[in-house]
Design a protein that fits this description.
This protein has 139 residues and is mostly helical. The protein has helices spanning 2-10, 12-122.
């Protein structure tokens, strides 16, 4: 080994080969370092864009959640109004049935009264005639 080293030291031509190899190694290291740097820069850009997208998605979720909450409150309020409306409609339905029954009974009573009066006036005998005095005095 010492002989090889001595020969390499004395031989100037092989020194150039070593220098070329070292320079090539340095250039390859430099290019790989720049490639790694570029890849890291691209990775950072992608991460920044993902973070921005995540922020937008979070904002959208917050807005949607708020809107869902407001809609839920509105539906709860509407359900109270619907229950009150159902009670009122049921009440008015009962009143409608009661009103129809009362109107029917009033019509029956009216027609019974009319029939009674007609029967008394048309079919009564002259003995049982009730004479109503004239309201207008005769002159």
């Amino acid at each position: 080994m010492e002989k090889k080293e001595k020969e390499q030291l004395l031989d100037g031509g092989s020194d150039v080969g070593i220098r070329k190899r070292l320079q090539t190694n340095k250039e390859s290291l430099t290019s790989s370092a720049s490639n790694i740097t570029e890849n890291l820069i691209n990775l950072r850009r992608m991460m920044v864009s993902r973070v921005e997208q995540s922020e937008q998605a979070m904002g959208t979720l917050v807005t949607s959640s708020r809107q869902v909450g407001e809609t839920f409150d509105e539906f709860r309020s509407m359900s109270g109004h619907i229950q009150n409306s159902r009670k009122l409609l049921t009440k008015y339905g009962r009143r409608e049935c009661t009103d129809k029954l009362l109107i029917f009974l009033a019509l029956v009573f009216f027609f019974a009264s009319v029939l009674y009066i007609i029967k008394k006036r048309l079919f009564s005998s002259s003995d049982n005639d009730v004479h109503y005095p004239d309201l207008v005095p005769s002159a």
